[in-house]
Amino acid sequence: MGTDRVRTVTVVGGGIVGLAVARALTRRGVAVTVLEKESRWGTHQTGHNSNVVHAGLYYKPGSLKARMSVSGNRSMVEYAREHGVPVEVCGKLVVATSADELPALTVLAERAEANGVPAKLVNQDEAREYEPEVAAVAALRVESTGIIDYPAVCAAMVGELAEADLRLSTPALAIRTVNGQVEVATENGVVRGDALVNCAGLHSDRVARMAGLTPRARIVPFRGEYYELRPDRSHLVRGLIYPVPDPTLPFLGVHLTRMLDGSVHAGPNAVLALRREGYRWRDISPADLLDTARFPGTWRLARKYAFPVGFDEVRRSLSKRRFAASLARLVPAVTEDDLVRSGAGVRAQALLPDGSLVDDFLVEEGPRQVHVLNAPSPAATSALEIGAHLAELVFTTV
Questions:
Q1: How far apart are CA 319 and CA 309, in angstroms?
Q2: For 361, which of 21, 64, 170, 266 could close a Cys bridge (C-beta 3.0–4.6 Å)?
Q3: What average pLDDT score do residues 27-32 get?
Q4: Distance of alpha carbon 207 from alpha carbon 10, whole angstroms
Q5: Closest of 48, 56, 90 to residue 73, by C-alpha
Q6: What are phi and psi of 197, to 5 degrees?
Q7: What domains appear along the chain, each with residue ranges and CATH number?
Q8: Dihedral through CA 379, CA 384, CA 390, CA 395, nearest 10?
């Protein structure tokens, strides 16, 4: 439906999801314009994550995240190998460090099986065959987890989009629908298309409102801070080591990840960012803070998680000693002196008015419009699947 009436589409946002949408549409013969407000592609969430190709074991069976991350794991690895992008399927351990975590680890193993993820429970000795320094009473070995260079994936996609109209340093300033076309005002004039796809990440809710939609979720930015192990201590970690996650939270907890260059990253924690692109404590936007404070869901979320969860995350953010202690639960040999401050990322987390964090990918549609309102991790893993899904949705809106 509508496939013969969609010849031009405007994509707002040039991260990995926006570029994947553009790729999927151009492969169907659609002329695409991509508007990215920054001076390079994949600047924010794509360029500030842990570069993990997720397996899909954490997500509710049947959810978009579960289906798209399992298939996305395969397609992303295949894409990387086809296009010369560095990738390594190294597997990971999810570690139970005490007996009281074993029931949750078993549930995770069952979820992995339900989602079709290759994983197996291993005992303490078997876990140490993979990671000799790990502290585990048991672990879940996940074979299909990998590491990749997501900015290089973006560069490969840009290379495929030679016939598309790719515009860096071009923010969307206003959006309206006129005479069956979506018009996007920019500093360099108006871009017109038969449809619009909003992949603006940290600003996706604002772009949706700019386009006349009333999104049911609000983006609340959470900063995740990272450390690295000193090079002479990187031997403590061979691959990826994760804790058993708290099922009530959307975050996976502080973990250890060996990167493609052999360095070992540790993190991230999760603290409320003080601006939408707040990569440091001193990055503060009064307008962004007011936007967050005015949303009823923010205060309901705070009542649920401020104490002790949020308070503990802030203390860990401000104390390298506490950060190191969290890592030492997984690998006891890690000490405060082993850690060197690294970068940070900001997660665009969608929040509902009742204070609940949106767990699955969230897409809302309007006439000639498709808006991605929640696509945090594993969106990079699932980018090719999300791109194909959104491209299909475009044709149903026209």
A1: 15
A2: 64
A3: 97
A4: 13
A5: 56
A6: -120, 125
A7: 1-89+147-216+360-398 (3.50.50.60), 92-143 (no CATH), 218-236+250-357 (3.30.9)
A8: 180
Contact predicate 342/228, CB 8 Å:
yes
Taking residues 246-260, what's their average pLDDT?
84
Q: Which two tokens stand for residue 35?
A: 């508007």
Relative to beta strand 119-123, strand 339-351 is unpaired
Concatenated DSSP letters of 248-281: TSSS--SEEEE-TTS-EEEE---EE-SSTT--ST
Q: How far is CA 85 from CA 45, 82, 117, 382, in A?
A: 19, 8, 23, 16
Q: How far apart are CA 377 and CA 45, in angstroms?
A: 9
- By DSSP bridging, strand 189-193 and strand 181-186 are antiparallel
Torsional sign, CA 143, 149, 152, 157: positive
pLDDT of residue 311: 85
Q: In this predicted model, what pLDDT tens digit does every residue of 298-344 receive, in sequence order? A: 999 999 888 787 888 999 999 999 999 999 999 999 999 999 999 99
pTM (predicted TM-score): 0.95
List for the chain the helix, strand, coil content (%; round to 5): 35, 25, 35
Q: What is the pLDDT of residue 250?
A: 63
Sorted by sequence, the CB contacts under 8 Å of residue 262 that are 6+ apart come out as 234
CA distance 325 to 336: 8
User: Is residue 1 over pLDDT 50?
Assistant: no
Over range 231-240, report the average pLDDT: 97
